[in-house]
Design a protein that fits this description.
This protein has 350 residues and is of the alpha/beta class. It contains 13 helices and twelve strands.
Length: 350
């Protein structure tokens, strides 16, 4: 595309996507705060691993530490900067790269939760796009080694959904979707905010649950107490999103109203979503863990405030309670402090 691209945050998602861009001939600079990761990428390249050998690559890349960004003007400004950090790092990460954008350069939030407004507060809404990554299932397991634990879907499922804040389909959104298609299926959406909340329904019901139970993706579906908690949180978040006026997308073969009904105890809907969750385990590797589960295992701060906490805040704006999300915030906070050990027993009788 003859574009200069920055990936700010070269962890699981950012590193995987940037690696495939490089593999397809794009000019990408990896920018990351972990010195060992940066050094290993520069020395030996980036190891991308999938569920099959055919999905695995070793890619030579150009990586710099965040302290080296001030040296990048020698190579020219960036046309596109992806922010793929934790949500709580969005402001400083965007501020870091903003001075190095080209005249028409823009920033893409490639993150969990809703961070486009944070990005826009730094560079302006006219220079902000969003990109949802749905079901990518990746983890930075060690320096310069990223493992993907779900198969490539290609045209059968758009893992990446790229959109403008104003909802119009633009050439630059199509460019970003093309870049994301190097990794897996992608599309341009005119419903960015609905897509974001649709993903938040998944994140709010999976990520904190993995953090406070210690279970992986399949374990949360198989364990009855964890599955019950998932359904209740997803239904609650879906109900709040609709009350806020967002148009939610279907979750593969299931609809938002099914999750709302299941959370309320409807037996038919409950059986349908339980069957869906169990069926999903057939397409996931046992190594797949939601990002907050990874964070908790590695002793890092989680994004519980930016996910379930955010749902609680938005529910209050329309006079609704969010007890299941609030309970998850409390459980994860206690696990973060070391006051509670991550175990499935934390969600018994959720």
């Amino acid at each position: 595309m003859n574009l200069r691209i920055a990936m700010v945050g070269a962890g699981g998602v950012g590193g995987m996507c940037a690696g495939h861009m490089v593999r397809n001939g794009e000019d990408v600079t990896f920018i990351d705060p972990w010195p060992d990761h940066v050094d290993k990428m520069n020395k030996s390249g980036l190891e991308l691993r999938g569920v099959t050998e055919a999905e695995s690559y070793n890619v030579p890349v150009k990586a710099i530490h965040i302290t080296e960004v001030q040296n990048t003007p020698k190579e020219g400004p960036f046309d596109i900067a992806f922010i793929s950090t934790k949500s709580y790092d969005t402001i400083w990460a965007t501020s870091l790269i903003a001075p190095y954008l080209s005249e028409l350069g823009f920033v893409v939030s490639l993150q969990n939760a809703l961070n486009e407004e944070r990005v826009a507060s730094v560079v302006g809404p006219e220079r902000t796009l969003g990109c949802i990554a749905s079901g990518i299932g990746v983890e930075l397991e060690k320096p310069a080694h990223i493992q993907r634990n779900v198969p490539i879907r290609g045209n059968t499922y758009p893992v990446f959904r790229v959109g403008e804040l104003h909802g119009r389909i633009t050439k630059r959104a199509e460019q970003v979707a093309q870049l994301m298609s190097y990794t897996d299926g992608s599309k341009v959406t005119d419903n960015l905010w609905g897509e974001r909340w649709s993903k938040l329904c998944i994140n709010s019901s999976h990520n904190g649950l993995a953090a406070c139970t210690g279970l992986n993706g399949n374990g949360m579906a198989i364990n009855e107490d964890a599955r019950d908690a998932q359904i209740k949180i997803c239904g609650e978040t879906s109900r709040i999103a609709l009350a806020l006026g967002y148009v939610l997308e279907n979750r593969k073969s299931t609809e938002p109203q099914q999750w709302i009904a299941a959370a309320a105890g409807d037996k038919t809907a409950l059986q349908e979503v339980e069957d869906f969750l169990i069926e999903e385990t057939k397409t996931r590797g046992e190594g797949q863990r939601p990002s907050m589960g990874q964070d908790m295992a590695k002793g890092r701060k989680t994004e519980i405030g930016e996910m379930n906490g955010y749902v609680c805040e938005k529910a209050a704006e329309v006079g609704l309670a969010a007890p299941y999300n609030a309970k998850m915030v409390d459980l994860v906070r206690r696990c973060e402090r070391g006051a509670l050990k991550p175990t499935p027993s934390n969600v018994v009788d959720y």
